[in-house]
Write a structure and sequence with these properties.
This protein is mostly helical and about 500 residues long. Helix content is about 75%, strand content about 0%. It has one domain: Up-down Bundle (Growth Hormone, Chain: A), CATH 1.20.1250. Helix 4 packs antiparallel against helix 11 and helix 15 packs antiparallel against helix 17. This is DHA2 family efflux MFS transporter permease subunit.
Amino acid sequence: MCGGMFIALLDIQIVASSLQDIGGGLSAAQDEISWVQTAYLIAEIIMIPLSGWLTRVFSTRWLFTISAAGFTLSSMLCGLAWNIESMIVFRALQGLLGASMIPTVFTSSFYYFQGSRRVYSAAVVGTIASTAPTLGPVIGGWITDALNWHWLFYINLLPGLAITLLVPTMVRIDKPDLSLLRGADYLGILLMAIGLGTLEYTLEEGTRWNWFSDETITATAWIAGIALTLFVLRSLTYRNPVMDLRALGNRNFALGCLLSFVTGIGIFTTIYLTPLFLGYVRGFSAWQTGLAVFSTGVASLVGTPVYIILARRFDTRWLLMAGLACFGLSMWSFSFITHDWGAAELMIPQILRGFPQVFAVAPSVTLGLGSLPPDRLKYASGLFNMMRNLGGAVGIAVSAAILNDKTNLHFERIVSHLTPANLPMGQFLQSMTERYAVLPGGPAVAHSAALEQLWDLAYREARTLAFADAFRAIMLAFVVATLLAPLLRKVGAPKSAPASH
C-alpha cells in the first residue's frame, strides 16, 4: 500500500523537469504544457476528500485495488498519448483514479499499528508523503534523458500491476457496505467537486492570466467561493456528509490540518521554485536539475531513522516544532540565492529542507489523526490529506505571483541605476560593443547587441531577487506554524485496536 502511495505522489512532480520534452513530443504550445501537471492536481484534490466515504462503500481492500488498477491503466494511456488534449484527459484520469491510494494508507496505518508502533508507521508514511514529490523531478529528469518522456508513465506499469494483484490477497481491514450508496450526499459531492476543481484552476492559472483582470479567472473564483460555502453548510447540516468537517472541532485535528497545509506549502512550492530557477536562470537540463535537487531526497531519507530514535525519548510535539523551525531556517538560507547557484550551493539549504520533512509531517499525522476516534478516522483523513495538497496549490500560486510582481519591481529598480553616470555600466557597454564589432551591420548593430546583453543581465538579477522574495514568504508561513505547534495536545496510545474500522 505504501508502494501505491509512493507512485501516486511521485507522479505529481515526475513531469516537472520534463514538461518541455513532453510539449515538444506532443507539439503543444507553451501555455498548454502546464496542464499536464494541472489536470493531475485538480483531479487528485477532488478525489482525496471522497476517499473516506468510498472506503466505507467499497472497503479499503477493493477501493485500493480499483485505484491501483485505474492508475496503472491511465499511466499506460498517458505514455500512449498522441496529442496534448489526449494527454490532459489521461493525466486527469491518472490523478482521479490514483488519488484514493494516498489517504487510505494513512488510515490503514492506524489500523495495523497500535501504541508505540505508530511512531514507526507515521515516520514511514510521513517520509513517503514528503519524499516522493521531492524525488519526482530527479527520477523524471533521469528517465527523460536516459530513455524518453513516454517512460515517465510506463515506469508505473510493473509496480502498479504488482500492487493491483497483491493488495486483494493481503489487505483485510473492513467490509464493503453498498447500502451507503442509497443515502449518500450526492449534492455535497457535486458542490465539493465544483468548488475544489475551480479553486485549483484559479490558483494554478491565476498568475498566467493576471488574476482578476481575466474574466475566466474571476468567474472560477466566484464559483469556487460559492460552491465551497454551500458545501460547508451542507456538510455541517446533512446527516451523512462525505467529509467530516465537524472533526475540525477537535483542536489537535484542526491544528494538524493547518500544519499539514503549511507543510504542503513548503514541500510542493520549493519543488516548484528550485527546478524553475535552475532551468530558467541557470539553463540546466532535466538531468542536471534532478542531480541538483537530489540532496533533498537523501537528507529526507536520513532524517527518518533519526526521527524514530528521538520519538522514543522525546515528546513528538517538540520534534514537530523543531522540524518546522528547521524547515523555516532552510527557506531563510534559500533567500541568499544568487544567479550562479548550482548543486554545490544548494546542498546545505536542501539538506536543511529535506532532513526535517519527516519531523514536520509524521508528528502532525500522529497528533492530528491520532486524536480522533476510529469511526471518524476515514472521513477525516481525506480532509487532512487534501489540506497538504491544497497548501501546495496555494503556495505555488502565491510564489508565482511573487515571481511575476517582484521581478518587474526589481528590474525597474536595477534599471533606474543604469544611467550614463554609472561608470561600470559604461565600461561594460564599451567592452561588449567592441566584442560585437565583428557582427555585420557596423557599430549600430554592435551597440544594440551590447544593450541587449545588458538587459539580459539586469533581468536575470531581477528574477533571482524575486526567487529570494518567494523563499522568504514561505519562511514566514513556517514561523507561524512553529509558534502554533506547542498548542497541540499530547495523544495517548489507544487501549485497543479499532476492530470496527
